[in-house]
Design goal:
about 25% strand; Aminopeptidase; eight-stranded mixed beta sheet; elongated; 2 domains; about 450 residues; homodimer; Glucose Oxidase, domain 1; alpha/beta; 14 helices
Chain lengths: ~450, ~450
């Protein structure tokens, strides 16, 4: 190589690397601006306050869910986005009815157990159900015990969430089959009802509800969660003697209801056909205020769009905030969204869901179709030096229930992962209220997701 | 190299690496056992319950501090350690006296401001102090304003903690000079009293106390923290008009009191002269229950020793749990400990302090004398693959106030670093109670510190 070509080449490399460096610095500065904006002048906490304390629990089909649609639409409308609209989806309408009752029948007096019917549970007969309890630890145990032991009894699923799991979602995943599939499995062998130990590692008196699935062709039986303290007490009594309980549930499944996903969008300036979605789910269970699950995720998603807008950021790609309806008991919103997107031939370059609470951010869990995953993950990892100063890591794993139907579009799916230690203290229970959310932790979540969305938009995938 | 030597050499390397591998696996298994033990069968949470709800705030010299000495000594005694003892230290005895009063004098009515006298503050005259307020943002501003503007007035330090700092301790460090040195600086120019905005990023009605220093040769003036909401209100009033306030404090500095560090020890089997210390501080402020600051640190340290003992771990080095007295307003315990250690010619291979709350662990901050730091830090970093699965990182930085006098022994100093987002919501205020501590978060902290202590003991430094 002659000297001049050598020098030109060197100069080129110098420019290239100094550009790279200045690009990194620009990104670092913009990300710092994002955090400053959210921490000093955020809206997420006030929005969450309204959604939780003014509207409250937002079960699909309820007046509160409809109110939440109206409220968040109005809030998105106020941000001056390119478009805000409602996307229809028909949602199931399950109602708890009058408060459920569970008590242990003992000679002297009855002992009330703190209880909540599971979502999709049927009602007991008006006179309730009185039957003997049989305790099991797993669905397999039900199968082994078979009809001769199960028939006519109330099956009590009492395998605790494993407290030694560091990630509490793993402990939940290891126990929740009892709640989701336990009732139908018990009914298959003739059980008349089901009790399930609440899905939490706490030892307290709050029952935690959640969805159960009535399997096709199997008799539907009432299913109720009892608090962990009640489960422990019942377990101890059963070691000594037979226990008979009385339970009454008053649930009903009404006709499906017309509901909506709430969507706000800023059109991309350069690649408008590449969509970057950020979302949470607007519905919650009826008990509590749906603060961590998933009011936090909704206001995270709204704050991402608001922050970029307020910082006068012009996205190259189309940014779309989607507040999904009916994640908890049907996924109607997520499925309707994906179906409409596929029909229109839309391409989601990336979709980020926040559905793990408003706690201190720890990072993002990344998913995609096998053939494209490695390339996408490599790209993300290049941004780690920009994310690590904010305590953010990347892991491989699931993303979010609402966005998972988009996986076939071969884009990147991301689940926001905050610290999980307190999540199952509040999950699906009366204590999931505004007070359980820390403002800074919530805001840091919003800023972290905004930073990731910014990087994806700025540099593509 | 001949074939046989080549083979022998290869065999040697194989053995070496498979030993290394099996050592790593042994460590991983033992660390998992530590977490399992603490999360399933921990004592930290119950100990903290007693220390906070049964004993309460434990200001140096108070009956509660003495009770905490007795209680923790009894708990350490019950663990079957090699020795448990009290180490004397004389502590200052400042008392708040009757509740302080601060109110704004306005024609129609007085507005009470939520207030707490700062530790070491003097009392106002019995009739209180009535004077005009002058607001400043820094100690420099006091100097610039000088005697002609300051004399006879009450100086109001109102620079907020910077909410955009991701690590809240940095925000605290950037504002706390106003509380520590503000009063004497104001007195230097003739101020009659000081108000300080509470050290928190929260906007609420809880005043946060903390230590102030009366500089030698400067007139001592009363100093009071007011809540952040009160500070904002006062700031707005001052934009419009002159404001006069009335304040009364009833503090006293009584005669010093004999107090103690509480120490429990397991003697090392192989290197008994190499001491590994784990500690927290037993004293707290008088308001609240001293739960995060630093009941959590004390029960962390106790749980480290208990867990290793219960797992039948035989330490090679001497493990010492030290609960220091008087961190908050004097450091008498930390200084007495280091003095006694140096006098006996003791060598602390490592000292780990937990004094940042009982929140989800994020890692450890490491410190040492310059000449030895690099080697020590490199050694620690080799263990990262064992710590990262538990969300633990290593950083360079400060360790803990109580152990810092040991630095000259040229060992490793470590500060346990949990998530800091909620710490200053509770720090030095009435809400630092048992309820503010989450059991899992507390236990994960204890397990994390135990894992580090185990690695240091097992492999040395």
């Amino acid at each position: 190589m002659c000297l001049s070509r050598f020098l030109i080449c060197g100069l080129f490399l110098l420019c290239f690397f100094s550009n790279l460096k200045s690009q990194e610095t620009d990104d670092a500065i913009f990300i710092k601006n994002i955090y400053n904006k959210v921490l000093q002048d955020g809206s997420a906490y006030q929005w969450l306050n309204h959604l939780t304390t003014q509207i409250g629990g937002r079960l699909s089909g309820s007046p509160q869910a409809a109110e939440a649609v109206d409220y968040t639409r109005a809030m998105l409308d106020s941000l001056g986005l390119d478009s805000v609209w409602l996307q229809p989806c028909e949602v199931p309408h399950w109602v708890r009815g009058e408060k459920e009752e569970v008590h242990i029948l003992i000679p002297a007096a009855n002992i009330n157990l703190p209880a909540l019917a599971l979502g999709n549970s049927v009602a007991t007969p008006p006179s309730g159900i009185t039957a003997e309890i049989i305790e099991v630890r797993s669905l397999d145990e039900v199968e082994k015990l078979g009809a001769k032991n199960i028939k006519g009894k109330i099956v009590f699923f009492n395998r605790p969430m494993d407290p030694t799991q560091i990630r509490t979602f793993n402990a939940y995943g290891g126990a929740v089959d009892q709640r989701v599939n336990g009732p139908s499995e018990a009914a298959r062998y003739g059980a008349v009802a089901t009790l399930v130990r609440s899905m939490t590692t706490l030892h307290d008196d709050h029952p935690h509800t959640g969805v159960m699935v009535n399997k096709e062709g199997i008799n539907k039986i009432p299913a109720v969660a009892i608090s962990t303290n009640a489960a422990e007490m019942l377990h101890k009594m059963l070691l000594e003697k037979k226990v008979t309980i009385y339970m009454k549930t008053n649930c009903q499944t009404l006709d499906p209801v017309q509901s909506y996903n709430v969507i706000g969008e800023i059109k991309g300036s350069t690649y408008p056909d590449e969509i970057i979605l950020v979302g949470g789910h607007l519905d919650s269970w009826d008990v509590g205020q749906g603060a961590h699950d998933d009011g936090a995720g909704c206001v995270h998603a709204m704050e991402v769009i608001r922050t970029l807008k307020e910082l006068n950021y012009q996205p190259k790609r189309t940014l779309r905030c989607v507040l999904f309806m009916n994640e908890e008991n049907g996924l109607a919103g997520g499925l309707a969204y994906a179906e409409a997107a596929n029909k229109k031939g839309e391409m989601h370059l990336a979709a980020v869901e926040s559905d793990a609470g408003g706690f201190t951010p720890r990072g993002f869990s990344c998913d995609a179709e096998n053939e494209v995953f490695a390339d996408l993950y490599l790209k993300l990892q290049q941004w780690l030096p920009l994310l690590e100063p904010y305590g953010l890591m990347l892991t491989k794993g699931g993303s979010g229930a609402d966005i998972s139907p988009l996986k076939s579009q071969r884009g990147l799916l991301v689940g926001f992962r905050p610290d999980s230690q307190r999540y199952f203290d509040y999950h699906h229970t009366a204590t999931d209220t505004f007070e359980a959310v820390n403002q800074r932790e919530l805001e840091l979540g919003a800023a972290s997701i905004t930073a990731l969305i910014y990087l994806i938009d700025k540099h593509g995938l």
